[in-house]
Design goal:
2 domains, single chain, 3-stranded antiparallel β-sheet, about 30% helix, alpha+beta, about 625 residues
């Protein structure tokens, strides 16, 4: 992601950008100082991992809203488990429980995005001109129980609410009673090509469910509404459903902002790795129903049904669950009362952003357990991920759309092995270990790159950091660095990707600090030694690029929030250059429209009405 200068880390006074750590000018993992033989016993014997800094940030940022919003183009996959008894939420225009495939939100405010009262001319308006649901007639109502079957057929059934492939959708499918039995049996949901080996057994084709449009693909940037807010139909009713997990859920966690329907690469791991670019998915970020159906098909056909759903993030964390009735207990459907904000959509967005900000540093409550030991990451492959034009100058984002089919298939196969052949290795919480490195070194590194820091204070800070690891600071450089790394590593760990990455980044930190201090202490030309050491620390900070350095410092007032582009709520490009504290008024006034050139989420050349012309952004 974008790398800012060290002065930004120190005082947030500069928005200049440097080369990406994957560029030739950035430090390379292969250039780590060699360790003495006495200090290498705890190190993995494999070669250095490519893009270890990015994988480290993926580990540390897993299930964290802030980190995953900043590094929004996730390139990694994790196995995850949601505990039994966890409450989930679902916003809908239907009162009855969902039984097929649908979306679940971790937070009620997120689900309420899809339970807003019907918009005139929007999804709440049916073919017959009435609001409040699909135009079902009495003849079809008796078939409802038959249609609510479990997911056991050739294609996972959508629930009674199917998400559209467009931002807005003004049509409803005809009621089932309008089809003859023969026509009804042929009204199959679209299927993705099978991505795994063909099944040796055949199961009866289920009777398709009625497809009712819902608001999931209708998301828009709430803060970006210009002009009067949409009119609401006071006669329509929306509901907030409450569910609890009946047992632990086995999920595939797709990191980054993987539920963000953008053209910037947030969907790459789904559309180019898991779906292998099927159905020209690269042409549109929408098509959520097809995307969800394809993922659930893959779990059934290629992964032996070992994944119950898919864990993703946008403005909040969510789960695509393949079968509600098999995994959830329906508690109640609560009528959504009309918003009392007098139609001020910006204020509604601010309140929702506040709920999401509560999860900046973790989803909380022990609701999700992530297996870091078995993770798979495109960052570790031999693919060149950083060769793309982006909205901001010198900002390079990892992308997968230009990779070869063989490379994508290889990555997909690695994910399949992770799912169906779980490694018999000790499960270590590598995120907690990565977090200890960040907690110890984030603030000192920010201090060391401060422009006004004197040479004396610079050297003293290095001494303070390294004093626990050497009784005599003139000892062997490699030994001091290894003691520094070993502070947080478990005494016995197997050579996994996550373990090697955390060790490798930890060694990069410790060896750089040690080399800088000892070079200063042994130099006869102090000025040159200090200049060289400061440059090395600057490069280290550039290499690490920890999202914690982007947070608003020293913090926001109680009526403010630290704002960064967070799809679909916020998209002001200035907030990407430098996140800022804003109150509700500034949040609303700083809003940008969905098709404005100042909107971070839309790339030059995005298709559709109001598309931006090709050419460089206006900066």
């Amino acid at each position: 992601m974008k790398i800012l200068t060290s002065s930004f880390l120190a005082g947030y006074v500069s928005a200049a950008v440097l080369s990406h750590p994957s560029s030739p000018s950035a430090p390379d993992e292969a250039t780590l100082p060699a360790l003495s033989s006495a200090a290498t016993s705890a190190l993995p014997t494999s070669s250095p991992v490519r893009n270890a800094n990015h994988i480290f940030n993926a580990i540390r940022g897993a299930m964290r809203q802030w980190d995953s919003s900043w590094n929004h183009n996730g390139m990694s996959f994790f196995l995850a488990e949601v505990s039994e008894g966890v409450q989930f939420y679902h916003g809908t225009s239907r009162q009855e429980a969902v039984t097929g495939m649908q979306w679940l939100a971790f937070e009620p405010e997120h689900a309420l995005m899809f339970a807003r009262r019907g918009l005139r001319g929007g999804p709440g308006k049916g073919r017959n001109g009435k609001h409040g649901g699909s135009p079902r007639d009495k003849d079809s109502e008796g078939e409802e129980d038959q249609r609510h079957h479990r997911w056991n057929g050739p294609s996972p059934p959508m629930s009674s609410e199917d998400y559209s492939d467009h931002k807005r959708r003004d049509w409803h499918p005809p009621p089932l009673s309008e089809f003859s039995d023969h026509e009804h049996d042929r009204m199959d949901l679209p299927q993705e090509p099978r991505l795994g080996p063909p099944s040796d057994h055949r199961t009866p084709r289920p009777r398709p469910l009625e497809l009712e449009p819902d608001q999931h693909d209708e998301q828009h940037i709430l803060a970006g509404q210009r002009g009067p807010p949409p009119k609401t139909d006071l006669n329509s009713t929306s509901y907030l459903h409450f569910y609890r997990t009946l047992h632990p859920l086995n999920l595939l966690y797709i990191d980054g902002m993987s539920a963000g329907k953008t053209s910037k690469g947030t969907l790459d791991t789904q559309d180019y790795v898991l779906r292998l670019g099927s159905n020209d998915t690269h042409t549109s970020p929408f098509g959520e129903s097809d995307r969800a159906r394809a993922l659930c098909n893959m779990s059934r056909d290629a992964w032996e049904g070992k994944v119950d759903g898919f864990l993703r993030m946008e403005g909040g964390f969510e789960v695509i669950l393949s079968d509600f009735s098999a995994h959830l207990h329906f508690e109640r459907a609560q009528v959504v009362e009309r918003d009392g904000s007098s139609g001020q959509e910006g204020d509604s967005g601010f309140r929702l952003y506040r709920a999401i900000a509560d999860r900046f540093h973790g989803v909380g409550g022990g609701r999700v357990n992530v297996d870091y030991t078995s993770m798979v990451s495109a960052f570790a492959s031999d693919m060149d991920l950083f060769t793309n034009d982006t909205t901001l100058p010198n900002e390079l984002l990892p992308r997968l759309q230009n990779q070869s089919t063989s490379q994508l298939v290889s990555l997909q196969e690695a994910v399949t092995r992770m799912v169906i052949e779980p490694a018999r290795k000790a499960v270590i919480n590598w995120q907690s270990i990565a977090e200890m490195f960040v907690q110890r070194y984030a603030t000192p590194l920010q201090y060391l790159v401060s422009p006004g820091l004197s040479d004396t204070d610079f050297e003293f800070e290095l001494q303070i950091l390294l004093r626990p690891f050497a009784s005599n600071l003139r000892n062997d450089t490699a030994l001091i660095a290894q003691r520094c790394v070993d502070q947080f590593l478990p005494p016995h760990w197997q050579d996994t990707l996550a373990g090697q990455v955390v060790q490798q980044v930890g060694h990069k930190i410790c060896s750089t600090l040690t080399t800088c201090l000892l070079s200063i202490m042994s130099s006869t030309t102090d000025k040159e030694a200090y200049i060289s050491a400061r440059s090395d620390i600057d490069q280290l900070a550039t290499y690490l690029d920890w999202p914690i350095w982007r947070e608003c410092k020293p913090g926001c007032a109680v009526n403010e929030l630290c704002i960064l582009p967070l799809w679909p709520l916020t998209g002001n490009i200035e907030d990407r250059k430098q996140p800022r504290c804003k109150n509700a008024t500034a949040f609303r006034e700083g809003a940008v429209g969905r098709r404005d050139r100042e909107n971070y989420w839309f790339e030059p050349g995005d298709g559709g009405p109001g598309r931006r012309p090709h050419g460089p952004p206006p900066f």
